[in-house]
Amino acid sequence: MSSIATNAREASAGANDSLKSEFVAFKTNRIIEVASNLFYQRGYSSCTLDLVADNLGVTKPFLYSYFKNKEAILAAICEVGISESLAVLEATLADEHKTHRALLTEVVRQVGRIVIERQEYVVVYQREMKHLSATDHNRILRMRASFDHQIAELIREGVEAGEFREDTDSFVAVWIGGLISWIPTWYSPGGQRSSGEVIDQLVTAALRLAGAE
Amino acid sequence: MSSIATNAREASAGANDSLKSEFVAFKTNRIIEVASNLFYQRGYSSCTLDLVADNLGVTKPFLYSYFKNKEAILAAICEVGISESLAVLEATLADEHKTHRALLTEVVRQVGRIVIERQEYVVVYQREMKHLSATDHNRILRMRASFDHQIAELIREGVEAGEFREDTDSFVAVWIGGLISWIPTWYSPGGQRSSGEVIDQLVTAALRLAGAE
DNA sequence: TAAGCGCCGTACTGGCCAGTAGTTTTTTCT
DNA sequence: AGAAAAAACTACTGGCCAGTACGGCGCTTA
Q1: pLDDT digits 0-9 by tens, A55-94
Q2: How far is the CA of A8 from the C1' of D5 (A)?
Q3: pLDDT, averaged across chain A
Q4: Given this model, what pLDDT does residue B10 score?
Q5: Is the CB of A12 under 7 A from strand C?
Q6: I want to staple A100 with a disulfide (CB 3.0 to 4.6 A). Which of A135, A158, A196, B189 is the partner?
Q7: Among A127, A186, A201, beta carbon nearest to B127
Q8: Rounded mean pLDDT of B14-36?
Q9: Residue limits of the HTH tetR-type domain (chains A, B) (predicted)?
């Protein structure tokens, strides 16, 4: 009996905890969403936490119960784009049945989609990374390096398999990363080109760089 | 006689003035050089003018006798990379005897060189443009647009002339601009790759994007 | 050498802002 | 209902920084 009661209590406590942590996650997300938008518009250093709080309809101490300080908010923002991209990259590369050309196409398409979706996060990351603490900076730099490394590997194998031109240096991985990162500086959601067109163009460009035609 | 005297006086005054304006130009240059370096390292908003002055061995009011305010210094920095690139672009395109392929190669090579030389200026421009006044912002944006437009035109003519693949959209001009702008985020002067190698790679990449092979 | 001028420095201010201490409100549990 | 705990707010501070008023020093000119 006591064990049943205990289990029930634990289960209930567990449910409560998870509900509570869902609330916390939700609020945390809202904060980085709004903060990202404001950092994007005004720049990290010239954006005050009072402003972020105002835009959320709360006050500054509220933010401090979810993040240690201003820099922690920035770190959370910077991590979004790169961690999602890395996740998609690894999920895509897991499919062993595809050709290297198909893999490259799919990776570029998926990551391009994420970069467009998370445009503001990506731009803030690119512009404001230098304000991160050394620890956060290194963690994010490692993710970025891992991304580039895996693309370079994909290129190398594709060249070996004869799918890409043999005079293709695996360093084009960095150039392809450049194409992807470049999108947010000129694409705007309501603009002339749809995100679909942009992604198609991106894929074409990446394939040309890889010599896969 | 009076006219000779006047001329002599004017000539002398002119020489003085030009010498003086050379001094002014020199000091102005030193300011944007040092400021660019500090804005590059710390970001525009978190870099104080006292710090800039310290690094020049002068004091803050000195800066205010050469620039109206902090933003004017930023504007001067932002203009360097793009105005030099535009000048080189137009000088290169003036050579009527070259093929479109040769013109594209030369433009990319020259602008790549400028971007590497002026790396810090270019990065500050990309990151901090949003802190410019509307007037400065527009002036610089127009230069940038003119650059992209002329590259697009070059691509279009090259396709027409049969030098580039016929399924090449002139929008690759923007992608090529992306490759060039991407260099400063990963190239470092003392690093593994020499600037010559980087530029060769850049040219190769640009030609592949244009379908000129 | 003395007067005049211009260049640069000293010293200040007014406002802004990250971060915090202590209080009030809301929720939870009995 | 009422107490205890959790969540959010009010109100403040200490330091920083763009921009400025004014003073002094050296340099020209006669």
Answers
A1: 999 999 999 999 999 999 999 999 999 999 999 999 999 9
A2: 23
A3: 91
A4: 37
A5: no
A6: A158
A7: A127
A8: 79
A9: 25-85
Cα separation of A92 and A155, whole Å? 15
**CA-based end-to-end distance of chain A:** 70
Residue among A118, A32, A38 at smallest CA distance from A67: A32
pTM for the model stands at 0.90
Residue A111 one-letter amino acid: V
pLDDT at B43 (0 to 100):
98
| 3-state secondary structure string across B40-93 | HHHCCCCCCHHHHHHHHCCCHHHHHCCCCCHHHHHHHHHHHHHHHHHHHHHHHH
Domains and CATH numbers, chain B: 1-67 (1.10.10.60), 70-213 (1.10.357.10)
Joined together, the tokens standing for residue B52 give 């800039």
Closest residue by Cα to the C1' atom of nucleotide C19? A69
Q: What is the DSSP letter of B99?
A: -
How many angstroms separate the Cα of B204 from the Cα of each of A57, A108, B86, B210?
A: 52, 20, 21, 10
- CA angle A61–A65–A69, rounded 5-degree value: 80
Burial of B190 by CB count in 10 Å (0-12 exposed, 13-18 middle, 19+ buried)?
exposed
Measure CA of the first residue to CA of the last residue in chain B; give whole Å: 70
How many helices (H) and strands (E) would you count in chain A? 9, 0
Q: How far apart are CA A201 and CA B156, in angstroms?
A: 16
| Amino acid code (one letter) for A153 | E
Phi, psi of A169 (to 5 degrees): -75, 135
Mutation for testing the B interface, residue in A82, A168, A182 having most B CBs under 10 Å: A182
Looking at residue B78, its amino acid is C
**A182 and B172 in contact by Cβ < 8 A?**
no
Q: Give which of A115, A129, A51, A57 is closest to A85, Cα–Cα.
A: A115
Contact A179, A93 (CB under 8 A): no
Contact A100, A157 (CB under 8 A): yes
- Residue A34 banded pLDDT, cuts 50, 70, 90: very high
Please enumerate, as own/partner, the contacts of A9-17 that have beta carbons within 8 Å and a separation of 24 or more: none
d(CA B164, CA B103): 12
Which positions in strand D are less than 7 Å from the protein's CB atoms? Answer: 7-11, 16-22
